[in-house]
Design a protein that fits this description.
Layout lengths: L6 E18 L5 E23 L12 E16 L2 E12 L13 E9 L3
Antiparallel strand pairs: 1-2, 2-3, 3-4, 4-5
Length: 119
Amino acid sequence: MSTNLNASVYAGYRTDFYSLKYSRNKFGQQERKTRHYGLSFGAFSGFGSSPITPWFTNDQITEEYDGLVWSNGLAFSIGIDYLNLGFALGWDRLLDKNSNLWIYQRKPWLGLIIGININ
């Protein structure tokens, strides 16, 4: 978790399913209950920043800074009503002169997707 700004473009496929049920309430009126399910998978690509420190370069640099990172990967999520949960598999590339020293260069990572539909 960090407060660094990251922005990516996601392109993929999503399919949604709905179930409708009607029941009578205690006043005899029909009430509709809707359930929504969704599945999504696709690829993402974008830019962000990551802390670059001696710790993340095996002590081969002495300065500390936030480096520009290009992230790519694949994602899968499941939606139930207003909640989305899923996983992302990605890899990052540091885009500066210390990219060959950065220990996370092109190493795979696994991320958790949590989303809330607010519409």
